[in-house]
Amino acid sequence: MVRGMGMGMKVLDLLVNEAEKQGADKEAFAFLTRPRFKGNLEKIGKAIAECDWRIPASEMRALARKRESEEYGLDSEAEIEQAANLWWSGTCIDFGIPYDRYCQNPNHGDPAILPIFLKELDGKAMEYPLILSPFIGSERRFVVVDFITTEALYRPGDRIDINQIDALAVADCKYFDFEK
Fold first, then answer.
1. Rounded CA gap, 126 and 71, in Å?
2. How many CA atoms lie within 13 A of 124 on its CB side?
3. Mean pLDDT, contiguous 10-residue spans, the chain (180 residues)
4. Kind plus residue range of the DSSP H or E element containing 100
């Protein structure tokens, strides 16, 4: 489901314009509401489902590197590398990718980091991307899109100390292509 009527109208407008470019009559969209043309609607739905909607991780890294460097004036290569790999939340917002933010400090207004995430992170070696699979028996995986610590700057291979995690944000891995 699209997020709201405004977005739904925008998607419909873009779809009608693209169909017209391909030679369709915009009045054909009215027929999609009729039972006789359900097959055409199914073909459109199938075409949408077959599209690859994932964002390449390399693109997320490049955009996050640029965004965070400009916004926060990062200058050390270690900070820039961490931004490129662990600070994707701003880029997620740009793409409309939903994510959940958690914080260890209840005064920040975000919910507390879920114990199931902390358990998986405790002592885990830092890796890029930082993928979490907290639910036993489920294939659902999350990628960390924000990782804020109170003291440490983690490099790949460093063991994570959950007592140093200040904030964490995760997004469903289904939105990203980690092979590209």
1. 24
2. 17
3. 72 89 88 90 90 93 88 81 90 94 84 93 94 86 93 87 94 95
4. strand 100-103
